[in-house]
Amino acid sequence: MKFPLYLVKRRIEGVFIFPFILIGRLIATLKPLGRDYETFFFFPFYHTGGAEKVHALVTQALGNKNCLIYFTRKSQDKTFYNDFVQSGCVVRDISRFTDSKILYVLNLIYRGIITAYINRQQLKPVVFNGQCNLGYKISPWVNSTVPQVELIHSFNTFSWIRLPFIPFYAQTVMISKVRVQDHLQQYRSIGVPEHYANRIKHVVNGVPLPIGKVAKDYSGMLELLYVGRGTAEKRVHLVAAIAKGCLLQKRQVRISFMGDVENAIPDDLKSYCNFLGHKSNQDEIEQVYSRTHMLIVTSDTEGFPMVVEEAMARACVILATPVGDLPVHVKHGVNGFLFSSVADEDRILAEGVEFVASLCEQRSLVRQMGEANEAYAVANFGIDKFNQAYKMIFEQLRNSD
User: Fold this and answer.
1) What is the dihedral of CA 325, 351, 229, 373, to 10 degrees?
2) Residue 216 lies in a domain
3) Is residue 262 packed enough to be buried (19+ CB in 10 Å), middle (13-18) or exposed (0-12)?
4) Which of 79, 143, 315, 323 is most exposed, with minimal Cβ within 10 Å?
C-alpha cells in the first residue's frame, strides 16, 4: 500500500469515528479536566520492559505536577509504576476503559474526551506518544496548533500502525541509528514525502551511572546474566541451551536470569539455569550487576536495549546478536562478542559456548573488556545527556509557531 492510501484509509475511518468523538467531547464538557497541564504523556504500560523504563526516564526528565500521564493498556505488573509517579506527574490508568475488546466503544469515546481536554488548555501543551496505539488514534483530533512528538524504539508493527498518523507529529524520536535507516527505507518504498523524514531525530537512551569505578572479582566463578522478559523475540531458550553447553564442559560460569522467564524455558534445560526472578528494587538489581561479568542478548530484533547500557556501565562484557544498534556499540573482540548469525540458532548456541569458554580461560580479557565498556558508557550513555536532549526537543516545540 502506498502512503496516500494510508491517508485515505485514515480519513474513511475518521468519518465513522466522528460521532463517538462528539459524544466524548460532550462528556468532557460535562466533566471537565479541572485544571491546565503543560504536557500530556501517552504510554501503553508500566510493567517490566526496556521501553517502559525509557518512558519513565523521559517523564522524570520532563515531568512535574503540571504534566498528565495516561496509561492505556492493562499492565502485567507494576514494576515501573512508582518510577512514573516519582516524575511528579499526575498519573491516570484508563486501561479499563480503553483496553476492553467487549467495550471497544469506550475506546472511541475516550478519544473524544481526551482530545477535548487537550484542545481546551489555555496555554499550548505538548503531547508525547511513547508507542501508544491510543496516542496515534487521537492524533488527528488534536488541534493543529498543539505540537505532538512520538518515540519509536524499534522497527516493528508500530512502524506500520503509525504511518497514517505521521502528518500530525512535529517530531519523531528514534533510539537506534539502524532503525532510523530502516524507517527511511520504509518511507522511500511507499512514497512518504521527504519532509516527514526530516522530522526524525536520533536520541540514544541514557541510564543513571554508578558512582565511582566499578570493582569486581575475576578470580572465581564467572557470572553470565540475562535480563528481561521471556517473550518470543528474546529467545531465552537459547541462553538456557548455552548454559547447558557450558556446564557440560565444566566451565567456571553460572548463568542467571533476572526476570519472569522460567515459563519460557524448556523443562529439560531449567536445571542448568539460575533463576533470580523478577526484581524491581534498585538496590537488589545493583547487587546482581555488581557480581555479573557478562551480559547476553539473544534477541532476533532490538532497537538498542537499555539493559546493555546498564551492563556496560557496570563493567560487563556483552555477548549479543548483531541486531539494531548493538553492532554500533559492541565491537567484536574489543568490548564483547557478536554472534555471526541472527537466524541460525544452532550457530548461536555453538558460538555462545565458545565465547564463554574463551572468557573463562582469559580472565584478564574479561577485565579488559569490562573496563572498556565502563569507560564507553560514561562517555556515551549518561542520563544528563539524555535529559538535555529531550528538554531541548520540548523547548523547541513549545516555542514553535
Assistant:
1) -50
2) no
3) middle
4) 143
